Amino acid sequence: MIESAGVTYQACLPLRWHVCAVTPLDIERARVDNLSLLQSLATLESPTDLENGADPVVAKALERLEARVDVMMTMLSKLVAQYVDMPPKVNLKLGARHLEWELQEALPGVGAQVLLMVYLSPRLASPLRLFARVISEQPDRCVAEFLDHDEEHEDWITRTLFRYHRRVLQARHQSQA
């Protein structure tokens, strides 16, 4: 089992996986796609930051524009979702270097190389594509360690996990208040 170094995010998310042979080019292509996805999610999910001295008229106009873009993104994501074969949701724990998930089908086998496709947000119908090696499995649970050890890739995953983890804590705090 992997040590839970750093932030992890526990959720029930759509996940698809399959055993595959992995090349360095596969990892590089997935990294480029993942960085784009993670940066897009950060932009979509973060509120617009306006400096304290911003013109109130400009701030109000930007708020209205952002609200319109949010509506359009919601409509677009619902339209695209109709054409995407979304995998079932599973309970999982995502870390910067590993993914642990509940198995609902055949076991991949320790040592197997797999492609994990995690759909982090309903706002984007694109998955985070992670090539990994299975390091542990139990009858109902599997753990895989990512093969991509690129520092920037890991940093963007960590930022995303931290943002999601913080959001969960804020929701808990608000429900207790």
Helix-strand pattern: EHHEEEEEH
Mean pLDDT: 85
Tell me the overall shape.
globular
- Poorly predicted runs are none
Count all strands and give the number. Answer: 6
Helix content: 40-55%
Continuous helix count = 3
Name of the CATH class: Mainly Beta
How far apart the termini lie comes to 36 Å
* Rg value: 18 Å
Give a short account of the largest sheet: 6 strands, antiparallel, barrel
- Report strand %: 25-35%
What structural class do you assign from the helix and strand content? alpha+beta
Question: Can you tell me the number of structural domains?
Answer: 1
The CATH superfamily bears the name predicted glycosyltransferase like domains
CATH level-two architecture: Beta Barrel
CATH topology: Thrombin, subunit H
Q: Within the largest sheet, what's the order of strands?
A: 1-2-3-6-5-4
Describe the protein in words.
Helix content is 42%, strand content 25%. The chain has 177 residues and is of the alpha+beta class. It has one domain: predicted glycosyltransferase like domains (Thrombin, subunit H, Beta Barrel), CATH 2.40.10.220. Helix 1 runs parallel beside helix 3 (151-176). The relative contact order is 0.24. The mean pLDDT is 85.
